[in-house]
Task: structure prediction
Amino acid sequence: MELWYTEEHTEDVRFSIKVDKVLYSGESEFQRIDVFYSKEFGKILTLDGLMMLTEKDEFIYHDMIVHVPMATNPNIERVLVIGGGDGGTVRELTRYQTIKKIDMVEIDEEVVKICKTYIPQTAGKLDDLRVQIFFEDGLKFVRKQKDEYDLIIVDSTDPFGPGEGLFTKEFYGNCYKALKENGILVNQHESPYYSNYANSMIRAHRRIKEFFPICKVYQAHIPTYPSGHWLFGFASKTFDPIEDLEENKWNSLGLKTKYYNTELHKGSFAIPNYVKELLDSEYE
Amino acid sequence: MELWYTEEHTEDVRFSIKVDKVLYSGESEFQRIDVFYSKEFGKILTLDGLMMLTEKDEFIYHDMIVHVPMATNPNIERVLVIGGGDGGTVRELTRYQTIKKIDMVEIDEEVVKICKTYIPQTAGKLDDLRVQIFFEDGLKFVRKQKDEYDLIIVDSTDPFGPGEGLFTKEFYGNCYKALKENGILVNQHESPYYSNYANSMIRAHRRIKEFFPICKVYQAHIPTYPSGHWLFGFASKTFDPIEDLEENKWNSLGLKTKYYNTELHKGSFAIPNYVKELLDSEYE
Result:
């Protein structure tokens, strides 16, 4: 018998991974949660059947969502992570001694519990003393915050299911308000390649631009996400991710990274013409 | 009934596309050739069951294999294309008025015939008066050339099957000899992500470095290739692809491109740490 996990990237495109073992399958209040083991990818977390991370390539996503804002402003002290229940984003943040406070707001306590049990590679730093976890809706949490954070990272699922509210105009407006005067907002920004994802990308970009004077998009190669071409949004009140990049300062920290480096940081903001055109389009 | 094309990226990873119609299936002297039609990707060419191109994203590969060397040295006049039977590389080259001669060496005449019939999107410029097609083994063809070309583009299949000779030390040495004193060699360079491809990448890079003083690697997002993370090799006798990039000159040509731009050109040479480490490793 062979067991295969298959994700439909579009109606006509499927990506399948041979599963050696199902480590966990369950249903939380919010979503279905599965943990598989695969020879090629190690442990794999899926939510509602969609790929969240694999041990083989989670470093790419987490490097890019954390080190890009941190190298732009190495003085960041107070960080809010929305989503990110697997703990990978928090793990990278805890590597900075300069960070004093990490609040993480995850709607689904089950995800954190299961990742702590099955995927310590990402969840292993959730007990860092600077980390406080709030199990509530990120949308509601940011409504209550004002002038509180230097950095907000939106490490959400796709904009269907529990992650939907994290792509709304109201949410981005509240993020703006929750950020200090030099604040940065980074979010996972979907993919430009398949139109179902590209539409979410266009919409998110347009909404963020309404609030933030600096609003750019950068890219990474994440082979286990649909199309492998994944984007992140960088929005901020004052910092420009290229002009203000603290290259020497970041390199002097001596952090070892498997994907990120400061040359790549700059290069990742150079995006293809067709992606630029999509971002500038007037999608409703 | 549903028809699906499936490519095994590794033993444990499969990528599948729903096929609406099989336009051609046949066996040449060298390989199996199929042309499918898919709603998501348009026409698709596979050789020996491996994805060569789709109408949806061939622009990415062809932009990156042609415009990167052309923008580095816009004075290129004489070009040799090895492989590339689908015609996409030649199509991009013919857009440069400054190019006087394009020799294309394709081992398999059937591929060219079938692409001319079924995929005019890529094959439509093979009749350009500057183009001469040689149906022979690229490895043997370059043996006979000396000091002849400003640019050689190796648009080959993977290094198994008919493309194997185009990844050998002998071949790269002959390319060096076939190039003029300012010559550039660009080749498709496989993917760093899955080890079966990464080993070919490491080997190719090490062999090219033995001949060319300048030897770099650049990347692109090609969603229909294994992992979507694809590399190209840039080797040259004198030109550096970043320092010598003729940004203004290239932009003044006014060529419209869907993927390539000169910012992306520079960004594409910034590669992840894990890829750098693989390229520097001493794989045998």
The longest strand of chain A covers residues 179-188. The radius of gyration of chain A is 18 Å.
